[in-house]
Amino acid sequence: MLQDEVRNDALAAMVEALVRPGDVVADLGTGTGILAVLARRAGAARVYAVDASPIVRLARQMAADNGVDGITFIEGDIAQVELPEPVDVAFSECLGNVAFGDAMFGALGTFARRWMKADGRLGPSQVRVLGQPMDARLNWRPATFWQTPWRGLDLSAFAQGDSEVVRVIRAVPAFLYAEPQTLLAFDPWNRAETYDVSAEWTLGKDRVVNAVCAWFDVDWAPGVTMSTSAPSPETHWSQAMFPLPQREASAGDRLELRIAIAFGEGEKPAYRWVGTWRSPDGTIIERHECKDFEHFGPSMDSDASV
User: Fold this and answer.
1) Per-residue pLDDT tens for 44-93?
2) Strand, helix or coil at 293?
3) pTM listed for this prediction
4) Per-residue confidence at 140, pLDDT binned at 50, 70, 90?
5) S-S: 239 plus which of 167, 180, 215, 220, CB 3.0-4.6 Å?
């Protein structure tokens, strides 16, 4: 992540935008401690840098090597940490692929309720997950692999499972179709327990579509926004794809996507999605539902919001 210049420049800009001289600052999930050091350089009076990983021991040494004092490094749980005072600013690089996956949002909310001053400033302030239909054949060809016998074994039973996994990819912008739609916008300091979101796209001309590409945009601070979309400068997050059965869509066909998101042990996100193809007159042509995650319960109703 320290080699991701797009990420790091955005985070440095976040610190500069949020921290004012004399502030008390919390850097949550500090990792290498670099943002804590930047906060001190921006004028923070005191910085509390918290991380559950032993990497904070190296971060402490890094700060000392650079002659930076005023930072208290704490190896512990963000949700349970005890500070001597409330804070003016708290920030965190808390994002994983498709925004979720870094197992920190619940702890961030607990920390904010316990330690933020009434007029405190938080970064990031909003995250938006966006999607766009795509032709993913350059990234993913499960049928080609699983339907080819291996040493005389028929492996086609695994094709369904492979088509129901959200996977990280580097999307090719030329193979993204229709206009991006916002699937979800959320406050990372107040994550819900579940989300149920939907979007719709109309294909303007004949296209091969077999997935929806997803990425996130994030407002790190006022005036500091970063996108992980395929046309944007590359980041280590890349993009992700929700596979669908391959279809040669005709002009005017509509693709409707509904995604249910829940969080399991360790805040690991689980996704269940259903894609519905409709003709221009609204008739359902095809409907596909991912059925991987049993804890979602019954399948999604066909007459639901999609």
Assistant:
1) 999 999 999 999 999 999 999 999 999 999 999 999 999 999 999 999 99
2) coil
3) 0.90
4) confident
5) 215
- What is the CATH architecture assignment of 127-296? Distorted Sandwich (2.70)
Per-residue pLDDT at 154 exceeds 70: yes
- What is the 3 state secondary structure string of 198-232? EEEEECCCCEEEEEEEEEEEEEEECCEEEECCCCC
Count of Cβ atoms closer than 10 Å to residue 116 Cβ: 18
- Give pLDDT, residue 143: 63
Q: How many other C-beta atoms can be found within 10 angstroms of the C-beta atom of residue 16? A: 15
Half-sphere exposure for 169 (CA within 13 Å, toward CB): 25
CA distance 176 to 268: 28
**Residue 114, pLDDT above cutoff 90:** yes
Distances in Å between the alpha carbon of 69 and those of 23, 91, 119? Answer: 15, 19, 26
Q: What mean pLDDT comes out for the span 184-195? A: 95
Res 292: pLDDT: 55
Q: What is the residue-averaged pLDDT of the chain?
A: 91
Q: If we measure between CA atoms, which residue out of 102, 266, 251, 273 comes closest to residue 188?
A: 102
**From CA 287, how far away is CA 255, in angstroms rounded?**
10
pLDDT value of residue 298: 47
H helix or E strand, kind and range, residue 239: strand 239-249
Length of the chain: 306
Please state the domain extents for the chain: 5-93, 127-296
- Rounded to whole angstroms, how far apart are CA atoms 131 and 230? 11
Which CATH number applies to 5-93: 3.40.50.150, 3.40.50.1100, 3.40.50.920, 3.30.1340.30?
3.40.50.150
Q: Is 5-93's fold the same as 127-296's?
A: no
